[in-house]
Design brief:
- This protein is α+β, with helices and mostly antiparallel strands.
- It has two helices and six strands.
- The chain folds into two domains: 2-17 and 99-127, no CATH class; 21-96, no CATH class.
- The protein is 32% helix and 30% strand.
- Helix 1 runs antiparallel to helix 2.
- The chain is elongated.
Length: 138
């Protein structure tokens, strides 16, 4: 990999390197005397995806969790509280999260990699040089 510094600032204002967050929620499904409880887990790079997942599980629990007697009436409120705690804990992590310093895929697309110093993209870029020409006979 060669490292070059690039003049200009077309990388200013770009978002930090992507991170993946995991969210595990409890989903409760009840039908009369039968109640099922399962953990559902999703990974996402954006908070919007995690919010959508949380809303889907919340609606499921509110609509289908209460109907089983007696466990639906017990497990559903417990799941709602635990899911709300997991969501708020994850929200705090997302707000305070920044990627570790290192080489990441260049968000501008002009180079293969660019260095993220932990707070911003730098001018340091890296490209690998691969020869596609066959070796020449000596």
């Amino acid at each position: 990999m060669t490292q070059d510094t690039e003049a200009g600032g077309d990388h200013e204002g770009l978002p930090p390197p992507g991170q993946v967050f995991w969210l595990t929620l409890i989903e409760v499904t009840s039908v009369l005397l039968v109640t099922f409880r399962q953990s559902r887990r999703v990974s996402a790079a954006s908070s919007e995806e995690l919010q959508r997942f949380y809303r889907n599980v919340l609606v499921h629990n509110l609509c289908l969790g209460w109907w089983g007697f007696p466990f639906g009436l017990i497990w559903t409120p417990v799941a709602l509280v635990q899911n709300a705690r997991a969501r708020s804990k994850l929200s705090g992590l997302i707000i305070g999260a920044l990627a570790e310093p290192g080489w990441y895929k260049d968000p501008t697309g002009h180079h293969q990699t660019r260095y993220w110093d932990g707070t911003r993209w730098t001018d340091q870029v890296g490209d690998t040089r691969v020869s596609t020409d066959p070796p020449r006979p000596s």
